[in-house]
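Long-time lurker. I teach an intro course on protein structure, and each term I like to show students one example going from raw sequence to a predicted 3D structure in token notation. This year I'd like something fresh instead of my usual example. Would anyone be willing to generate the tokens for the chain below so I can use it in lecture? Attribution to the forum is fine with me.
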Amino acid sequence: MRRREALALALALAATPALAQLPPSVTLDEVLRLAERSPRVTAAEREADAARADRDAAGALPNPSLTFGHSRPSGPHTMFDGSSQEQATVELPVPVFGQRGARMRAADLQVGRADSQRRLTGVESKRQAALAYLRLLAAQEQLAARNAAAAEVERIRGVVVGRLESGMASRYDQARADAELSLARLAAQRAESDVSEQQAALAAALGALAWQPRAAGSLAEVQRSLERGEAQALADASPAARLARDESAAAQGRVDLAERERFPVPSIAVGRSWTNSPFGAANYIGLTSEVPIFDTRRAQADRARAEAASARERERAVNATLQADYQRHRDTLRQRRAALARLDQDVPALQGSFLEMAESAYRLGKGSLFELLDARRTQAEAAVARLELVGAIIESELELRALAGEL
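-- Reply from a regular --
Happy to contribute to a lecture. Here you go:
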């Protein structure tokens, strides 16, 4: 038993990308390439191979049946005069009502459906991996912003300590600065935990074990690369729409097959019998056919038609959902871009003057520490808000490309 468990563990590790083969940091293009070799995509490819094997099986001709018998009389010769009799029969089913062609057409449609499922799985794997990469990149930049904010608070605390030593600040100011520094460090710690969480999500999306990747690049670079070309309008090339269409076609193919399967498959039998002592022989040919009296297989055909109707309704629902999701992501993307433009237009000038005036006023004794810390907090929160907004814009762009099958 231990050997079997060790062998299973070795096979599982062999099927998983080795850590030595995975880079410590990845770009978006590298993540998309790794997603093409994820376990889910590989499983979908094997399912497509199985569908092609079923197509080969559907096109195979039926095998003949060979029967051989030996007879020896035990009493008076009433059946034949020889000492023994042998007989051999070859029986071949002949699907004359088009059953084989219907099986082949149904199998071809199932192969097309499996290929569409494989393409959709590939696009979905790329989508999830790209979103995980994007969220990791956003978490890293937010962590950098939180660390910079904590360093800024620590610098302000140093100013407060200097003023306290010179008698220009109170012990309350130092306590307030210490509390603000603790809060800033706590926010940085939470951002670091978010980075670890997104690292695990990216490793899971790519099917890697114990991998802690770093997202290379920046949100600005990813945003510029995606804005070079807008996602095309949602069309028949959408992987989800194509899969729904192929599922409907495959269900209709099963209806045609069920109708053909209602006809019996006759068999032609050719045989020869002969006796020994004395020798005598006779040849014969016969036809065997089922008589569909009690079971006409109407229930199987009705079931296939019901499944085909259900597949057509699912296709309509999928197309409606895709159109709604596509329009929703386009509207959301337009709104987020407008919000980013307003943020970039209004906030930077306000931040710079606001923080500079607050610190100058505090150093000259004309402003309070609360105003300085509030200005610093406003600057930090605005920087994080901008990162979140840019990340949300890129997510919308990725969703649109995934819906259109352009990842």
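Some talking points for your students: The radius of gyration is 37 Å. Residues 4-20 have pLDDT under 50 and may be disordered.
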